[in-house]
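seq as requested:
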Amino acid sequence: MPKLNAIKTKVHRPVDGKLKSITLSRTVTGKHCASLLYETEQAAPAPLMDVEATNVIGLDMGLSHLAIDSTGRKVANPRFMKLAQKNLKCKQQSLSRKTKGSAKRAKARLLVAKAYERMANARKDFQHKLSRRIIDDNQAVSVETLKVKNMMKNAKLAKHIGDASWHALITKLAYKAKEQGKHLVKIDPWFASSKTCHVCQHKMESMPLDVRSWDCPTCNTHHDRDINAALNIKHQGILRLKAEGLSVSAHRGSRKSGILPVAAVEVGSLAR
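C-alpha cells:
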C-alpha cells in the first residue's frame, strides 16, 4: 500500500482475476478491513427460463417467526437484540458513569461498540445461512415487500422490527439468487395476502394482527394466517413469472386441481 509497509492480513477466500481496486475501512471497534475488487472472465449464469412449480416458494415475514414459507415451515425469530439487551444495558450504564474525555470512558465506549458489533455479526451470520439454504433449495422465491419505514412509526413494534431486519434478509436473497441465475419475485406490499383464502380467493373485510388463524366463510377451510399468506405470495409469484415469459410447469404435469392445506412445521435456529 502507498506510504505503508507490508500489512499482515487474513485472506478468507482465494481470488482469481485482475485486481481493480482496494478499499480500506475501519470499524468503530478498531478493526481494519480491505475490500478487493477483482475482474474475472467468469460469465454470469443465464436466468432460468423453465421453472418447476414445486421449486417455487412463497415467503412471508413476521416477528414471532422471522420467515414462514409456503411449505408450512416456520423459522423462529432469534431476537438478537433481546438476547443482548442485558449485556448492552450493563455496559451502557457503565459508560454513562465515566467522566467525559477520560481514558476509562474511551475503554467503556469500546466495550459498548464491541457488544453492538457482536450482535450485528450474529444477525448477519444467521441471515446469510438462512438465505443460502432458501436459494439453494428453490428455483424461485416470492417475497412480499413491506413498508418498513411506515411500520417503524409504531413505537411498540419499532425495536422488534429493526431487530428482525427484513430488508437485509431480502437483499441477501436477491444477490444470492442472481449469482445462481434464479429468480426473486417481489410482490406488491398492498396485496392482501393474509386475509385472502388461498383455496377459493375469498377476501375478508378485516384481519387484525391478533388473529393468528381463521376459517374461510365460503369454503370452510381453516387457515393458519402466516402459512395462508405464504401460499398466496407463492401464487402471485408464479403469475408474475409467467407474465415475464417464463415457463412454470405445475408438478411436472401431475398437479391436481385445488390446493390442500399445509401443516405448520416450526424450525428453530439454524445450525451454526
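Confidence is low (pLDDT under 50) at residues 253-265.
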